[in-house]
UniProtKB/TrEMBL annotation:
It comes from Sutterella massiliensis. Belongs to the N-acetylmuramoyl-L-alanine amidase 2 family. It comes from the Bacteria. Transmembrane segments: none annotated. It holds the Pfam family Amidase_2. This is 1,6-anhydro-N-acetylmuramyl-L-alanine amidase AmpD. Gene3D superfamilies: Peptidoglycan recognition protein-like. It is found in: Cytoplasm. InterPro entries: Amidase/PGRP_sf, Amidase_domain, NAMLAA_amidase_2. It catalyses: Hydrolyzes the link between N-acetylmuramoyl residues and L-amino acid residues in certain cell-wall glycopeptides. Its EC number is 3.5.1.28. Its cofactor is Zn(2+). Keywords: Cell wall biogenesis/degradation, Cytoplasm, Hydrolase, Metal-binding, Zinc.
Length: 221
């Protein structure tokens, strides 16, 4: 099935609060199942899409170690991977260099992609965002196929979720993260954003003081 197929999303788990059937997985994309997720806060809506880059090893786009990281099966004893030992992270979606899109977490669940973050005065961006990882680094441009897949994904997400903004990890965790980085074409993304969705990539879109207060609080716990 093409990533352009907008046939909707497939049934997922029952909503614990209402008992109604949820839908949070898109049949247009390759389905994988990360164990690294939990429930969003009760009543939370998804208003933000956060873009990242990732590759393992950095700059190597040929293997499956990103998937192993998200699935919790990565061998962290390998040279260069020591810092990843015990790391439990995930993203809702991963866009490979070929444009293939893989989904790891139901969009109604909380993936663990943003970490310590703030968006327009709200901490903990994982609570209200969808995480989208693009295979890449800060040193190379992204592929046309990835932008085409991202456009299709954002259109599908905005048709089913109240997404209002698209941002980058670097803008919600400044000084700690740099992705999607200097080679990411924000102007190209702005041109294909769905109606009603805007970019949020200004310095004032993050409250650094709130992040610092949250960091100090976490250190005391």
């Amino acid at each position: 099935m093409s990533v352009w197929d907008e046939s909707g999303i497939v049934p997922s788990a029952l909503d614990k609060a209402s008992g109604e059937q949820r839908s949070g997985r898109f049949p247009a994309f390759v389905q994988r199942y990360s164990p690294h997720f939990d429930a969003r806060p009760a009543g939370e809506t998804v208003s933000l899409a956060v873009l990242h880059f990732i590759s393992l090893p950095a700059g190597d786009f040929s293997g499956e170690d990103v998937e192993r990281l998200f699935l919790g099966t990565l061998d962290a004893s390998r040279p260069g991977y020591e810092s990843l030992a015990g790391l439990r992270v995930s993203s809702h979606f991963f866009i490979r260099r070929t444009g293939e899109v893989r989904q790891y977490v139901d969009v109604f669940d909380r993936a663990w992609h943003a970490g310590l973050s703030n968006f327009r005065g709200r901490d903990a961006c994982n609570d209200f965002s969808v995480g989208i990882e693009l295979e890449g680094t800060e040193a190379v441009p992204f592929e046309d196929a990835q932008y085409e897949a991202l456009e299709a994904l954002l259109r599908l997400l905005s048709a089913h979720l109240p997404i209002r903004w698209v941002t980058g990890h670097e803008f919600i965790a400044p000084g700690r993260k740099i992705d999607p980085g200097p080679y990411f074409d924000w102007a190209r993304v702005r041109a294909f954003l769905p109606e009603g969705v805007a970019l949020a990539i200004a310095p004032e879109d993050c409250d650094r003081e709130m992040i610092e207060r949250r960091r100090r609080l976490l250190e005391r716990q």
